[in-house]
Amino acid sequence: MSAIPSLQTRLDLAGLDDLFTADERIVRDSVRTMCERRIDPYVADWFERGEIDDIRGLTKELGELGVLGMHLTGYGCAGMSAVDYGLACLELEASDSGIRSLVSVQGSLAMFGIWRWGSEEQKQRWLPDMAAGTAIGCFGLTEPDHGSDPGSMRTNARRDGDDWILNGAKMWITNGSAADVAVVWAQTDEGIRGFAVPTDTPGFSAPLIKHKMSLRASVTSELVFDNVRLPADAVFPEVRGLKGPLSCLNEARYGIVWGALGAARSALEAAITYAGEREQFGKPIAGFQLTQAKIAEMYLEYAKGLLLANHLGRRKDAHTLRPEQVSLGKLNNVREALDICRTARTILGANGISLEFPVIRHMNNLESVLTYEGTVEMHTLVVGQSLTGLPAFR
């Protein structure tokens, strides 16, 4: 009997590596190598304790690797392709959704917001340090009472001479307590506007959110603004309304389309390995039909998800990607990744709930990814409106 091919070879059953150029595979493998060295040995402990050791050191290493704002150009950013960025997100989330969230919020929300909508002075002040990982950013849109309806936000900014006075609160903010700058969206007399808020400004605070059972290897905070006085040059000069924050969210959602597949792949790998080693009734459980049916279905959805992610990435690089297509990708890939993790948990049985294996950690994390940056319901309605031509949000 011939030897069983390596797990990596078996996981490329569909030949999906052929989708990517040699340079893209180098980017992917570089991120994977860094994650194997710097994150994988420690992340289960971070998750269990609910804190990341030396987040600033980790962020600096991610900057040195070039993944922070890697799809942006200039200001120290790597200027790489959307597919490169997607593959990086996949590898980061294969380690943990919280680590991918750190990178996604830094690059696709905070950095992209400044890069796309900020003044030249704001870009020069913040982007080089953020790309290097020596400054951390966060993104303030969601509020305690306003998630899917950001247009009803209560955080407000009013003019006081040449300054702005910012009041309100934001909730569930990744990187918040560690951030040096917060990109904050607020109601003004001129509509919703964006601000680059240094976190050492008097009146700003970022209490850490505790008692989470998901994304525990991630800094999650509330942002509180108590008469925060900002100079005139803190506001983004031109953008008004929801166009600004929604453009940032679209960037981050694109990364999630890829990232969720990393969690799925990690769970699938764990399930295949475990099933090959766990013996019941005299043979490995991988040799039973029901287990093989689960593994085949898991791989099928993973492969389809990667095909979709790559297609959307190629469209993004061709500047033809539409927001509703990103919604389609997030809706499908996160939902299927979560189902893959849940199925993997059944293969591992009781061991599936142990942090000795990555499955329950990925499963819990994806419960958050399923609803953040657009809930399942909202993305379903975006897709539904695209197909029927009729909005159903109200």
Task: Report on the architecture of this protein.
A four-stranded antiparallel sheet has the order 2-3-7-6, covered by helices on one side. A three-stranded mixed sheet has the order 1-4-5, with helices on one face. Strand 2 and strand 3 (163-174) form a beta hairpin. It is built from twelve helices and nine strands. The protein has three domains: 7-132, Acyl-CoA dehydrogenase/oxidase, N-terminal domain (Butyryl-Coa Dehydrogenase, subunit A, domain 1); 137-240, Butyryl-CoA Dehydrogenase, subunit A, domain 2; 244-388, Butyryl-CoA Dehydrogenase, subunit A, domain 3 (Up-down Bundle), CATH 1.20.140. It is 51% helix and 14% strand.
Keywords:
transit peptide, flavoprotein, single chain, 51% helix, FAD, 3 domains, 12 helices, globular, AcylCo_DH-like_C, Butyryl-CoA Dehydrogenase, subunit A, domain 2, four-stranded antiparallel β-sheet, three-stranded mixed β-sheet, Butyryl-CoA Dehydrogenase, subunit A, domain 3, Butyryl-Coa Dehydrogenase, subunit A, domain 1, 394 residues
